[in-house]
Amino acid sequence: MKKWFKFGFSALLIVILMFSIAACNANDTTDTEKIEKVRLVEVTRSIFYAPEYVAIAKGFFEEEGLDVELSTAFGGDKTMTALLSGGADIALVGSETSIYVYAQDSNDPVINFAQLTQTDGTFLVSREKIDNFSWDLLKGSTFLGQRTGGMPQMVGEFVLKKHGIDPHLDLNLIQNIDFANIASAFASGTGDFVQLFEPQASIFEKEGKGHIIASFGTESGHVPYTTFMTKDSYMKENQDIVEKFTRAVYKAQQWVETHSSDEVAEAIQSYFPDTDLELISTVVDRYKEQGSFAADPILDEEEWNNLQGIMDEAGELPEVVDHKTLVNTEIAKKVIEE
User: Fold this and answer.
1) Long-range contacts of 201-205, Cβ-Cβ distance < 8 Å, separation of 24 or more
2) This model's pTM is above 0.90
3) Cβ neighbours of 221 (radius 10 Å)
4) All domains in the chain, ordered by first residue
5) 45-71: per-residue pLDDT in tens?
6) 286: Cβ–Cβ under 8 A, 6 or more apart, which residues?
7) Which of 44, 181, 245, 261 could form a disulfide with 285 if both were Cys (CB 3.0 to 4.6 A apart)?
């Protein structure tokens, strides 16, 4: 009896010791694989940013040890305010905003480090159905545009001028409506034409409230339309996080590149709960066809100069800024070469 007791007690001690070692190992793993939280703010919610949502939904950020908390600011000015004030660590917004901040002699400039989209993402929507569209039809019309100084408006003006239309003389141009309310203003009867992002443009078409007749993206060429950026100080203090973030973005870009529009739509559907899955797929396909999604995160010098040319044409370029001053391509190149 005593022998059995000694044997049973010894076995119990061994089991307890094994569980203790396992628990210690689990704690060691948690300490080693520390999860870093990243506060990400996007300028708007759009299917245009599909690779961003894929990176979250498919766990690519998680694989890099990042817990990404996504919020939507609905406007470039609000997005940059969140970033500059410390309310966000990384922002997804048009690259022009980094130039505006730099021109204000900021002692902590905003650095572009990973490009997400490489064309304009807006479409020209007409109130009436037009079978044989030509840009001349806009002359004398009321055009519901975007915010002055924002990338959508500057690209819009660039394309209009390309087709011989002076947006301030040949149109009744409306620009005093807040970004978040432009679609509802058009739906309520304001304007003959409007410049809209997806999925709103396709939703209006499906509901009979408007008709997509042209793409500003195919008309304007490649530009760093939306990029991930952060303050120079954050990048220097958290280069490992920025690198992990960029790696996850690149994985998502490659995933979108190699998967069908239907698969992409299924992956990002939770970010557009009120939008039909088939409609999401249609929009993804439209963006894929016009090459809107960047295949890698590198923002090259040609695209940067094209951006400044569009800004200059719109009279919104405060000063010419060299590519290497506000763009970091080293991290993106490293991630791609791995």
Assistant:
1) 201/122, 201/123, 201/125, 202/279, 202/282, 202/283, 202/286, 203/275, 203/279, 204/125, 205/125
2) no
3) 16
4) 36-119+223-337 (3.40.190.10), 122-220 (3.40.190.10)
5) 999 999 999 999 999 999 999 999 999
6) 198, 202, 215
7) 261
